[in-house]
Amino acid sequence: MGRVSQLSHSPSNYRLFSFGSNSLGQLGICHVEDAHTPTELFPPCPSGMNITTGGNHTFIFSNGSNVAYATGDNTFGQCSVASSIKPSSDSSQSITTKFTTIVPPSPTARWQAISSGWQFSIFVSSDNAVYSCGNGPRGELGLGSSATTARSLTQIPSFPPPGTTVVQIVSTVEHTLVLLSNGHVYGWGNGRKGQLGLLETGEKYIWEPAELRLDLPEDFEITGIAAGREFSAFISADGEIHVIGSDKWGVKKSKPSNKVSGWRTFAAGWGAIYILTIEGKVLAWGRGTHGQLPPNDLPPLEKLAVGSEHALGIGLDGKLYAWGWGEHGNCGTLSKEQGEVVRWKHEVSIDGLAEGSYRIDGIAAGCATSWVWTT
């Protein structure tokens, strides 16, 4: 969750589908029922989209666009939209079931990146400003200890530092990591399990952006970051990996002892870490209790998207594959005999599209949600 999955540029005749958990409208399909098959939606976006997901909310945007689109849970303003509804008459929640627009506060700015956590969202604009909104009782907003809720976009002061820009940003359940152009990593949010590096004695949360103390080897240059539920991971250009935080699922003790050369994608779910190599091989370690680790018969992949407890892949054969915990339909339709855990090579078909009539161009995965884009 909260990871931005880029959907590659394509002609404007794309078709976008979502499936999985939808109790708060996070799939953007105008209702609040889970979808067990890819369901077409119609966001008013041009091609070249990015999708990022929070606990129960979603953003779609294009790099360089002045508009982002939000749907889902807006109870704490995490969608930063004024227009929302209640899912039932006795509900205290506020949601939106179809996409509404968000524009940068500066009229000349464009959206560069968006990341999302459980009930919060972080925005990076082209004028080098960073904003947050939503709920942050453990520092998730980066606005200081006195600001635990922001119902609209609120700029994080003095960040990034002068002379730097944001290269990569990832958010997870309760913390955010930012890789800056000078190679340093900043973070904020819940750090009680060590996921934000070495903290001062008695400190549990980082309330404002701070450079992380990571105790890395002297020659370790970070080029990729990933965030799990209670851990953070870093990778160098030559494939050396460093993991901090909780080791409940073995993400530290089970990491590759050798460098992973030729890596293409570096990502994390709530309890596992994944690497896609340029040869199409998926390496993963950590939690596998519900099929989160890739099946042995998984074919080589062109693209990989990692959700909270499941993953998607586009095979070199052009097919869409899913594995992991699919309790909400986020791994596609499963029979009663198959249950809700996918531990095998499971192809997801798109109903209504004739075989050979389309190309799967992009994928994204969130908190029990899945997205696929075809042309």
From TrEMBL:
The keyword Lyase belongs to this UniProt entry's keyword annotation: no
RCC repeats: 14-64, 128-182, 183-238, 280-317, 318-375
Keyword Iron: no
Stored InterPro entries: RCC1-like_dom, RCC1/BLIP-II, Reg_chr_condens, Ub-ligase/GTPase-reg
Cellular component terms per the entry's GO annotation: cytoplasm
Domain RCC1-like: 16-370
Cited Gene3D superfamilies: Regulator of chromosome condensation 1/beta-lactamase-inhibitor protein II
Keyword line: Repeat
Signal peptide, first to last residue: none
Biological-process GO terms, alphabetical: protein ubiquitination; ubiquitin-dependent protein catabolic process
Superkingdom of origin organism: Eukaryota
Listed Pfam families: WD40_RLD
PROSITE patterns: RCC1_3
Any one Gene Ontology molecular-function term assigned to this protein's record: ubiquitin protein ligase activity
Protein name: RCC1-like domain-containing protein
UniProt organism field: Orbilia oligospora (Nematode-trapping fungus)
